[in-house]
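Provenance and format

Records in this collection were gathered into a single text stream. Each protein contributes a sequence line and a token line. The two records reproduced below are adjacent in the stream.
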Amino acid sequence: MSKIDYQALREAAQKAKELGNISRYTKATIARLEFKEADTPDAVLALLDELEAAEKRIAELEAKLDSADKLQDSAFRHGLQNGFSFGQTDNQAGFEECLSAYGTGKGE
């Protein structure tokens, strides 16, 4: 994967956007050429690869968050069934044992 100079690409794109529509303007022509030089197929492919990797990582994190939410909800319901919620018991060790057993049963 090629190294992308994000700042240079951003500046070239911004200049091309601001000045690119002005015909017969030397700075506009230069801005368009600078952007074309920075916008290479390798740069676009590298950006797409990075985008794909970021989207994959986001999906992984969302799946982990969903799993954690389900585990927390299930552990809470299990605690309610066994009377370990809302301070109904002083048996903290029993509560921790209950959660520990639940976690190991789920492959944690």
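Adjacent record:
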Amino acid sequence: MLDSLADYVEQDLEARRKITSALTYPAVVLTMALVTVLILSVAVLPQFEKFFQSLSIELPLTTRLLLAITQFITRWGLLVLVLVVVGSVTSWVLIRRGVGKPFFDRVRLRMPVLGSLYNLVLTERFCRLMASLANAGVPLTTAMRVTSETMNNVVFRDALLEAQQGMVEGGGLSGPLAATGVFPSTVVQMIRVGEATGTLEDQMEVAATFYERELDHKIKKVTTLIEPAVVLLVGLVVGFVAVALVSAMYGIFQQAPT
């Protein structure tokens, strides 16, 4: 049993490492882009704004838009940053104290892209630990309770406790799990097959392996999509700044008296 639990812990840590690794590069690029934009907005672009204002000429739309964004960041950027930091810290404190955790856990499950990864991690964790406990001879109702306690997501934890109650009332495992509406139909079907054939432990192992591979595939797919999207976003920002400045200089030359 200890070997099985050690394998479960190792697989769980590996899943977290994969997700962290996949998100590190986009996070670094976005952070660098944000810092660059802030430096431009605070130190560089205001000098161009003074220069353009001294000429008293009509600026192109892109340049006016860039200067408006610069003015907003200069005047309100610090306030926005403080509000974001305060909001983030407040949310973290509330979650740590359990206040609003159900709401935030539901949001995490429904987030675009990352929500599906989080669902896969929790589903794989459920299958892996249930298989380990079942192979060790732990009664299913006890295994469900123990597994629910390992879930750091209220939605999944409540679903497992609800399913456990259904098992106590004689509903088997697959039926109560399906009734929660939380677990994927694939894992429910695998468990149903295991119950019908008396190979529940084996089917849980198969389900755990299936969702582990599905998580690997999803991470690779998300990484493939996120990295070009981040590079494209940074390129659009840099391109917009360049076009705004170049078009302004071109307009100055066009309006200069000959």
